[in-house]
Automatic annotation (TrEMBL):
Keywords of the record: Cell membrane, Membrane, Transmembrane, Transmembrane helix
Membrane topology per record: Single-pass membrane protein
Record lineage: Bacteria, Pseudomonadati, Pseudomonadota, Alphaproteobacteria, Sphingomonadales
NCBIfam families the UniProt entry points to: phageshock_pspC (TIGR02978)
Originating species: Polymorphobacter multimanifer
Keyword Transmembrane helix: yes
All residue ranges annotated as the Phage shock protein PspC N-terminal domain in the record: 7-61
Entry keyword Cell division: no
Name of the protein this chain belongs to: Phage shock protein C
One cellular component (GO) term of this entry: plasma membrane
Transmembrane segments annotated in the record for this chain: 33-57
Compartments where found: Cell membrane
InterPro entries documented for this protein: Phageshock_PspC, Phageshock_PspC_N, PspC
Length: 126
């Protein structure tokens, strides 16, 4: 069974303590440094339950499967988009397919028209 790319995982390769902040950063496509800074700043400013939530997430979340570390940058960017905004990603993929279909129809229309120059070139190739 392949690993789900839309699930939250602890990022053990980029971890500092348990991999929670780097997992959050990986999930949303952010820089882990800013997630760590935000956690520390929020804890200092009085959101004292964040360390407890951090420990609960560290205990309950699964580590990221090794197969997901070897993804290309394009794959990572695509799956981050799917996690963060699935409807927008579906819309973008549909638009890309519609554009490819339109271009293919244009090519097909050009090739199947009564273009005598093109027909002569095709006959010369035979």
């Amino acid at each position: 069974m392949s690993a789900r790319r839309t699930k939250f995982y602890l990022d053990k390769r980029n971890k500092r303590l348990a991999g929670v902040c780097s997992g959050i950063a990986d999930y949303f496509g952010w820089d882990p440094l800013w997630v760590r800074v935000g956690l520390v700043a929020a804890t200092i400013m009085g959101v004292g339950f964040l360390p407890l939530i951090y420990l609960v997430i560290a205990f309950m979340a699964e580590p990221k499967p090794l197969a997901l570390y070897d993804e290309s940058a394009d794959d990572r960017r695509f799956w981050t988009g799917v996690r963060v905004a699935p409807k927008r990603t579906i819309r973008d993929v549909n638009a890309a397919f519609r554009d490819a279909d339109r271009r293919l129809r244009d090519i097909e229309a050009y090739v199947t028209t009564n273009n005598s120059k093109l027909a002569r070139e095709i006959e010369d190739l035979r």
